[in-house]
Here is the input.
Amino acid sequence: MRKLIIAGNWKLNKTSAEAANLATELKREVSDVMDVDVVICPVFTALSVVQDVVMESNVKLGAQNIYWEDAGAFTGEVSGPLLKDLGVEYVIIGHSERRQFFGETNATVNKRIRAALNHNLTPIVCVGELLEEREAGKAFDVIQTQCTESLAGFSSEEVQKMIIAYEPVWAIGTGKTASPEQAQEVHKFIRDQIMKLHSEDMAQTVRIQYGGSVKPENTAELMSQPDIDGALVGGASLKSEAFAAIIKNCCTVNK
Ligand code: PGA
Here is the structure.
């Protein structure tokens, strides 16, 4: 049985004070949740204050990116040792916004995953197709290339440590969610890719999150799909009530 994992991607939002408040409210609302892993990913500048709030609670800290070198002349970057220093345990890698606006490629995603694993950070590796790719019938080709190239060179043990997030780009921030069947189809496909690269037993242990307009109302139906093991939540993670409701709705899912 794979434990569900819900991660909040706060993107470029919240001052330190606002982030601390949101984390405080969320920690209170989900303090009794044990059956679901809960992660929040604030902006770099709020990681430290949020860690002060969630330390020793069931809410874990994630970052939104990581550079592949540890230190040096890399202006504007943040590295694994610096994230570890703040108590970060997870890191989102290859989010579609990084791919669309900041030149992220499967090759750079691969290097960032390596850096995360080297520093014992759990990578949340994002894949997903654009609307035009889906409409052209190319969604599965795109996902296959993203999986193969991003995960190239990692051992089974290493891939087992990762979380994959399937985020159809057309569903991110649009209010348009993939239907549970559409999402399940791609999740199964991703698991099959991992199986081909590694083994069936190993592929069964990897958690694959869905992301794209997840809200309290659609959580249970999405999570009840056999290959959906959690969610990466953007907009709805910025309100403690909505994010807590998503987490609690997961607790009602029977697989
Ligand atoms: P959304 O974002 O929930 O606002 O659609 C998801 C994401 O980008 O991770």
Notes: The longest strand covers residues 4-9. Residues 62 and 90 are 4 Å apart (CA to CA).
